[in-house]
Amino acid sequence: MATVKEKGAVAEARVDLVVNGESHTVSVQPQWTLQHVLAEKLGLMGTKEFCGEGACGACTVIMDGRPVLSCMMLAIECGGKTIETVEGIARSGHPLIDAYVKYSCMQCGFCTPGFVVTAKALLDRNPDPTVEEIKEAMVGNLCRCGTYPAHIKAIREAAAVLRGGGGRE
Amino acid sequence: MSDDRTQKVDQRQRMLEAFDNKAADLHPLETYEVIGRRDVPRNDGLEKATGAAKYTLDVQLPGMLYGRFLTSPYPHAKILSMDTTEAERLPGVRCVLRYDDPELPEGASLGGHELNSVPALPRVAYFEGEECGAFVAADSEEIAEQALKAIKVEWEQRPFLLDVEKALEPDAPLTMPEEYPESNVHTVYLEGHGDVEQGFAEADKVIEFKWTFGLNTWVGPERPCGVWRWNGDFAEIWTKQQRPHIVKRAVSTWFGGIPMSKIDIHILYQGASFGGWSQMAWNLGGTYCAAVAARRTGRPVKWLFSRREDFYGGNMDAGVFYVKVGFKLDGTITAVSERGVTLNQDMPVFGIVAHLMENTKIPHIHGRTEAAWVNKGHTVPTRCEMNINCYTVNLVFNRVAAELGMDPIEVSLSNDGAEGHDTDWLDAKKAELGFQVRDSLRECVEKGKAAIGWDEKWHAPGAKRLPDGKMHGLGFTWTHEWDDSAGSSEIGMYFERNDGSVTILGCRCDCGVNAETTYCQIAADELGVPLESVRFKHMDDAGFFPMTPDTSTNLAVNGWAVRNAARILKQKLLETAVARRCVTQLTPGYPPAFPDKRPDELDVKDGVIFEKADPVNRMTIGEFIGPSGAMGPITSPVGEPIYSGKEGLAFPLRGTPPMFDHGWQIQRGCYLGVRLRFCRQAHFMEVEVDPETGAIDVKKIVTVNDVGKVINWDGCEGQAYGGAIMGLGRGMTEEVVYDPRTGVMLNGNLLNYKIPTMMDYGDIETIMVETAMGYGPYGTVGIGEDVATVLPALIGPAVHNAIGVWIDGFPMTPDRVLQALGKA
Q: What is the pTM assigned to this prediction?
């Protein structure tokens, strides 16, 4: 990819990231978002761009344990960070995946990975969320198909599996 | 108009004569294994949950360029001159196309459904944000964006109009003068039956009211986009498109004509699709420019719209409507007349009183749609064109009930019927056509009333204040199903070598409604194979085009195609199983797998062919089909027969006869009034309205749909609760706002255009009624558009029941509530 040569533009920089447990060194342009680098450079296309301005949650990843919107973060500022994407959550055998399939939480599916990541971050910090807590945690994830009711069932079931030690991990 | 009506009556008569529900299904299944089962997992569930599902936006090809359009900063303007020198010099810019390029003929139509021609790169923009003038292909999207900013344009700004009623005024400036030099009104559509003046004269009471609906848009999570790659003279195309066959048809007319056989289309998963874009040449402009740029650069080109550009398309239903209703004191409606002025409606043929005509015994009905252009984005059918009709039904019955102090459900039930006739007439038609005679509306109403607690909770408008000061309201509306069964459908189906699993082929868009799983359920039960062994490969152009997810038509058309193909395939399988076949150079042929049997003595269950009278005589389909390899099913890799005497099958076994062999139910669309509607739907809503802030809190929604028969529960219920949530947004918060001073869209982003979140709805109960009175296979009707389309208007009567005041304007935002209460 060509570099945009603007007056005063900063050259590409090398950034070290740990993504889904693997180390990567990526050469990034200063204006690239983390979402762009994950999807376009590392091929982790489950991290989707929907609104492009922090309003929809489709690009959510877990960074150092917290859910963040990767379309709102410059990759150049993410050096040394540990990142978990939907692909990592799926590979770990997290019970959210089975629960999401069981309850048909997806229609078009474009926003689904962002929901899975946000839900995983919720369960990491709250192993037994109430319906209201789930709604509050997930309110930043938009679904145009209106799949919301299914997510609540799936997240509660995954939480129960995790508490019962029933996960595949 | 009289000719038109006569034609419709003739068509309906022909349909009534040709149609026989019992005759159409000569071999109904005795039992269902997976059809209608509750725990059927989605085909695409794991793929989508894990982020593995690929969308057109995800396509990356070696050397691929990124293309973006210049857009107009003005609502109505012409390009006088353009300097692209600086843009062309930018590093990474590989191709700049201009409106005056000889390969982009001005005035040429790209092949969409617009009434007017749409060139790939217009010189004149009719709304702010319209793609026009230039297309840049560059190494990255950001370089393309930067190049667009470097283009210098001299614009001629023209007068513009945003208010659709002002567009009708005699001295109004022309909004699309090149296309419509005489008037801003492009179509006047008339519909109706009886004589409304007579109906009003017979009425005890006559009311008149006005309602309005602002622009809303479906704003899909995946931006409009596509990719073009030339492979020699073969065109390979990826596009986010609801109707792949329209793209292929249009493309075949470009560049002096490309044979259909040289065009390959890939339709990956769609990041939502609710119609609209699929019919627009506007969208095809990206594909056209990408094709030209790809040829000039020798590289594949991905075209994209920005997030903001997406807000100008997918709009629906804006307009101003004037309604007059005459009725008797017992609630019998004698006449309805409605005049609507619709905004930028590309296809104003869906009517505004069509549901009253198809759905009630009201004897005198008249509708007049005046469709006019203003300088905003186009509106096209997006989930769904019946929206205006649903508003009309909703408001007419609820207004009449309120005027008489009656329960709106009673008023609705007493006017149920069809084509001006009562329910006795309709019941006779049900029997005539071979359906069971059931009262769909009453069944829907009774279930819904119980679920929402109607009898306990309903009260006079404005009569129930809650302890916290909020006003409690309950709303009801209803209509029929409007599954069009439109379009043709072809699919291919065959058994795979080695294991006998089943592949269904047909290029169609998956927009998330889980249709592919549903088709697999039908194929599994009809063939007698496990569901897990069936897959619908919908993404590639295999030469078959099933009907696309339009007009709630997925199932009612493609269901027949799948069922028909499955029955042909099963019949061929059984015929082959008893026949001597496979004469080759190596062998004189093989004895039948089931010697001395007839096909009707065999059956298939769980993927096993067996003799009905002696089930021990059996063979799996996989064993029968045999392995893949140089000699197909006949021999093993070393040339020896593998299953002595039992292998082989004529190959390939796929294909389906033309639509009309199995698509006896085809008709021209409900808006053309050709067929009678038996299945109904009824919806209920409970709200609390804060009279101080105008906020509406939706506490509970009950949706009741008579879908004829449920095949896939997740699919049906997903459309019901998903539609309810989308409908709430459209009815309460969503409106595309333009600045009246500049004509510029003000909220083309997801921060300022409010779609519902997980916090914005109350309990949703989805109820399905199964009367089997639909025209689809197994008596089904579609549900995809229903709830999202009916629900927005239901907010009106629910809020009226709460505050005792009618609000004319939708979406029903807090400011409109406060205005109605005299507080703003």
A: 0.89
